[in-house]
């Protein structure tokens, strides 16, 4: 497991989240000034300096539910609200899109190009906000500084860590199904055509060398694909041609996007549900959330500006039906963490969680403050 995976996971999933929200804001004809405010608030929170400092510290990946909690807070960093079913769909789309990109990544190092594609698109959302743009560019510089010197082996470990994180997710996405890059069981189709990784040759030739390193024989074979040489390497600079298209916005054209659980995913979910038994990593995961959320500065709505609800489904009826049919094991509403009796930690977490309170939802009784699970429920 690589200790350098979390920033790449967070930034790429965050980029996908912004793509989806931008598409839905346009589809629901939300006024331009409100849509711009939502994206600006979320991006500003996402790239907050203190938050990034915590994120870039070497650390192991945590559970999907722990990360989902962070994205839930992030999605509600502005005047927009999502209900549970829409938040579930948003997270499903985010995770499946990035899983697809990691699977098709030509070289392990190209995960950095995928990240830069997301950051390039995010910069496009905030061209009229120089202060937020500076935050994003500062994160880009951090990525270049930390990951620019990593070896191919270290990038391979990062890619492997990401694939392990996503390996049990097989959610069908309509765009992928229509483009025939995903099968009906939720698994992706790996292509046998297109450019080969930069620095490699098109398959089809075996060279044999003698003990002096001189080539003595060539054998050609049919590889069954339609490969071509990569035209050039993608740019790792702040501005440049990334060449690789993975990580760009696939929602730039208005296309309805649906998600469906495959039968295999439902069966797998019932077997892999996080245990309610005491987990030795629970306290560490709690510390992670406290640190990470403590670095997020959520701007509470000010003034008379009203909030609005965003629906990731075509109609309210579809949203309600999705909430009823989603397997309980795949709901991320509650973090299944065993509470510790560390009063100081509980108070600190309660303070941090209080800063993330969604203002238009009634807060439950404060008497539950000592119970960590209840605190998570109150979010």
Structural descriptors:
two-stranded antiparallel ribbon, two-stranded parallel sheet, single chain, OSCP1, 379 residues, 14 helices, Protein OSCP1 isoform X1, 8 strands, mainly alpha
Termini separation: 31 Å
Structural class by secondary-structure content: mainly alpha
Which overall shape is indicated by the principal axes computed on the Cα atoms?
globular
Helix-strand string: HHHHEHHHHEHEEEEEHHEHHH
Q: Kindly report the spatial arrangement of strands forming the biggest sheet.
A: 1-8
In which range does the helix fraction lie? 40-55%
Query: What percent strand?
Result: 5-15%
**Number of E strands:** 8
Tally of individual helices: 14
Spans of at least 5 consecutive residues whose pLDDT stays below 50 are: 268-280, 333-342, 357-379
Largest sheet: 2 strands, parallel
Rg from C-alpha positions? 22 Å
Q: What number is the mean pLDDT?
A: 79
Descriptive overview:
This is Protein OSCP1 isoform X1. This protein is mainly alpha-helical. The longest helix is centred in the N-terminal third of the chain and has 22 residues, at 6-27. The two termini are 31 Å apart. It is globular, with a radius of gyration of 22 Å. The protein contains 14 helices and 8 strands.
